[in-house]
Amino acid sequence: MRVLHVDSGREWRGGQNQVRLLCRELAREPDVEQLLVTKRGSELALRAARDGTRVAAVPWAIGLDPRAWWRLKRTTASFKPQIIHPHDSHALTLAFVARGAGALVATRRVDFHIGRVSGWRAADRIIAISEAVKAVLVADGVPGTEISVVPSGIDPAEVRGAAATPLDIRRRLGLRPDTPLAVNVAALVDHKDQRTLVQAARHARAQRPDLHWAVAGEGELRGSLEAEIARLELRDRVHLLGYVDAADALIREADVFVMSSKEEGLGSVILNALALEKPVVATAGGGIPEILPAEALVPVGDAEGLARKVVAALDHPSLVPLPARFTAHAMAQGVLAAYRSLL
Question: pTM above the 0.90 mark?
Fold first, then answer.
């Protein structure tokens, strides 16, 4: 089976790591030959190559870069894939135009609605990373029979290994070693809704004045979040760390991991927190309830409820084991089953 993966590689987030893990796991299948087309010099290209994945790195400066399309078209003609698997919307558009005779399998990682004229409707099979993502696609008119639900997965040993080198975040922030710390790792974009997290910090201050909050991530809303933190006089309690490469080490040093998303395909970073045996508190956005039990969740936008749950988790930490269905191996086997259903 020849599989051509396509990812624009314009950033390094959870979705790109899933592509890397999928390629690594499929490399163990004796009947699978694969090639990854992605942006030259991207983190995905570099990390996948280090794993031993065959990478065709192409110029890809903008989402629909014609140079990337031309290279993809040539690669498709020479590689002759039976499966073409784009992993983001830009990759899907270019892959559809350049597809040749291969079956088109596309992974959908977000629970956003799609338009009436959308490349997602052209896929032979859509892999949704959660039931929540599938529900949105079905509501938008995609037949449920054309959707396979395959949750994202992680390599727990890899996560623990990445977290082994201390980040020493409390010292870096000038905090005492015993300072309670709630950590969020997510891009600073609207659907991650760190505004609710900042509001939760305000509510929690009266209950636990020693509690600090660290947010690892960068994005378009940084300025507005900084303004909100200043307005609520929380600059001494809420710390915007920017992009943190050693995110797993940061999570390991947390007392509680927090997600405040109002929309979320699944929330694979939560899986990392579970693998690191950290209490998790989150909003019930998108696919998050498919990972966490109800007692760990609050309604989307409920800042006061989030504060109460975080404070309770500090005093009475409750650990959720990582379910086996959220491992990289299980994810790859689910994707492989989707491939085989088309062949």
Answer: yes
